[in-house]
Prior knowledge:
Blueprint: H1 11-15, H2 21-29, E1 41-46, H3 58-71, E2 75-80, H4 86-89, H5 97-116, E3 120-125, H6 130-141, E4 145-149, H7 162-173, H8 179-188, H9 201-212, H10 227-246, H11 250-253, H12 256-269, H13 274-286, H14 292-299, H15 316-321, H16 326-334, H17 350-354, E5 380-385, E6 388-395, E7 403-412, H18 414-422, E8 430-435, H19 449-457, E9 465-468, E10 479-485, E11 502-506, E12 511-514, H20 518-527, H21 538-546
Parallel strand pairs: 1-2, 1-3, 3-4, 7-8, 8-9, 9-10
Antiparallel strand pairs: 5-6, 6-10, 7-11, 11-12
Amino acid sequence: MKKSIDPRGYSRIVMDGARQAPSRAMLRAVGFRDEDFGRPQIGVASTWGNVTPCNMHIGDLAREASVGVDGAGGKSVLFNTITVSDGISMGTPGMRYSLVSRELIADSIEAVAGAAGFDGFVALGGCDKNMPGCAMAMARLNRPAVFVYGGTIRPGAERRDIISVFEAVGANAAGKLSDAGLLEIERTAIPGPGSCGGMYTANTMASAIEALGLSLPGSSAQEAVGEEKRRDCRRAGEAVVGLVRSGLKPRDILTRQAFENAITVVIALGGSTNAVLHLLAIAHEARVRLDLDDFTRIGRRVPVLADLKPSGRYLMSELIAIGGIQPLMKMLLAAGLLHPDCLTVTGHTLRENLENVPMYMSGQDIVRPLSNPLKKDSHLVVLYGNLAPEGAVAKITGKEGERFAGRARVFEGEERATQAILGGRVRAGDVVVIRREGPRGGPGMREMLSPTSAITGRGLGAQVALITDGRFSGGSHGFVVGHVSPEAAVGGPIALLRHGDRIRIDAARRELHVELPAAELRRRRAAWRPPKPYAQSGVLAKYAQLVGSASRGAVTETIQPRRRHS
């Protein structure tokens, strides 16, 4: 006999009975009526903020989700969490707060939903860290929930986007672009609301979360502005009420096979290296054992199919125009590359969701057929070696080549490296080393978009490599290796490098080495002393004390997940 589901299993504790009259009195002041107290209570977690175009419209979308909740017989309660802008803070000390915001978002959604006794919730995110933060909260709370992506931005003039501006800075420094040209690109690249327009981290994570089954089909491939996205929000509100009544929870969806589906879709799309970091973190919260080697295992059999920026030609809006990621997922499913029986927030399996999805129109060249991939295996390459005993993550599309060897140019932090690149002090054959940018040492593991864009803008993209214990924006491309672990702040081998050391990167053999005898590395290690922490107080200091290795998702909890086979 099927166990009956109480759709108000959490809210009853807060709202029912004479003893909870004070709670009801407070809620009447915010608009509750008598009949609302008997309905499932659904939180609507908005990441609205006017601090970034990625999120400037999400307040309106959250209200649409509330309409969906209320229309389906629930009672919506709208609340806000934070967002910060990677694009605005990039290359500045403010970028240290970016990855930290992922934890703050997860913590704040947990705190509000837990305190208010919500029976379920909708979470809406736009900028990069919103999405994993929301998904981490969903996994952690394990209450019925749906994620809604705020949508991608429309292209700027001449198909420009934010990466066009970053690379224009490098071109301007190299004398290849006038000041007037730079200003014109600055003024026309960002036309309105929405997340950065290529297969950068926001669109990568939106796609990954849809592949996990936590958002409605199609949510990840919609523009930020338009009726389609508003309808997606209303449907999400309706869906959560249905999930509360059926009892389907995030951890029923977030199985190991679901994470393998997400990794597969990210690879096929040519997605951001940040997906590695964030999927590890979401899996940690879901108590699913996932590690770096899973990306290698899956990557051996999954090709890169989508010709999307930053290394490709097309923008997300152009992928949307041919059908988004659903036809791609159907193609992967037919090839046996996705697990078909994973549950999703529709209440149906992945196979059922894709059954009636049409395939891509003939003649399009944005997504290649499996018989003619852009790359026959994954672009996300996990490297090990005497520079990365715990691993490092590279994004190798094949256009950069698979091997690079050169002399180290070592910089303590991003600013010094960017200044040297723009000043012409980095030359062909150099391996730029940017350290003390890891989760603990940064703190916050800043993205190195400014130095990688400067390298590209100066015309050195094929002649210079870059390694860091920080990470990369989804917009970075070139021969770049991040997440080097252990990081410099804890005495990892990257802390021991000196100018002129010869570094060898071999993506084919998945190796990252400095050509020094083990005895020399031991001697340097014995002389090494921990650097003074960047922050002495506040959220950055707390984060630095709690955060773990990038090789395990840079999470701030130490609970070890159990292995789940289902």
